[in-house]
Design goal:
Structural class: alpha+beta
Number of helices: 6
Number of strands: 7
Order of helices and strands: EEEEHHHEEEHHH
Strand order of the largest sheet: 5-1-4-7-6
Largest sheet: 5 strands, antiparallel
Helix content: 25-40%
Shape: elongated
Radius of gyration: 21 Å
């Protein structure tokens, strides 16, 4: 049996009314219709089902993609022209491994519900774990704020400056605490589970 990891790097990722570039999203399987039991003793090194911590490496195995699943995910992402990278997992995994679903989630982390997209048609549910690092917070695109200010200036018949100049001015306002972000007009998740993230508009 082979298992695979997959991740994408997304620009203009919408989170908390901001757009972030270079956001790393690690895709995982969260639910399967055909959830055939796995032989964890073969897939996890020194696996002991009586160990109270065995569910950590089990989660890592369950979140990984089979050969069939990774091919289907690959086709889906390719159809949407989204970048991705696939890596085969070296088996057996260590018994000190843990799935991302076992992690405590901080305020700048979350799960992107890929399976809620309108075009999603895979027979298993996929979500993507992401974390907005301090470095990424300084890479906000300010695309919505820039467009909003350009519209205001155009309405007043002012010739708008270059986008980079507007971006630097917005960053200064943000640093001074004088910036009100512009809401992102994208489709919201409507299910009960709180993902705290907007669906990608592309």
């Amino acid at each position: 049996m082979k298992l695979f990891d997959c991740y994408s790097v997304v620009d203009e990722f919408p989170f908390r009314n901001w757009l972030f570039d270079e956001v790393h999203i690690g895709w995982i399987v969260t639910s399967r219709k055909d959830d055939t039991p796995k032989n964890y003793k073969e897939l996890i090194e020194d696996y002991d089902e009586n160990d109270q911590n065995c569910w950590y490496p089990k989660a890592a195995v369950d979140e990984a993609f089979s050969e069939s699943e990774i091919e289907q995910l690959k086709q889906y992402l390719e159809n949407l022209n989204r970048n991705f990278e696939i890596k085969e997992i070296n088996l057996p995994v260590g018994n000190n491994w843990g799935g991302v679903s076992t992690l405590p989630i901080g305020s700048w982390e979350g799960f992107y519900p890929l399976y809620l997209e309108d075009s999603y048609n895979l027979p298993f549910e996929v979500e993507g774990y992401f974390r907005i690092t301090d470095e990424l917070k300084f890479k906000k695109t300010f695309k919505n704020e820039i467009n909003y200010l350009k519209k205001i200036l155009a309405t007043l018949n002012f010739s708008p400056p270059k986008d980079e100049e507007i971006k630097e001015a917005i960053k200064q306002l943000e640093k001074e605490g004088n910036l009100i972000s512009v809401s992102i007009e994208v489709k919201k998740s409507t299910i009960n589970k709180n993902y705290d993230v907007e669906l990608l508009p592309f």
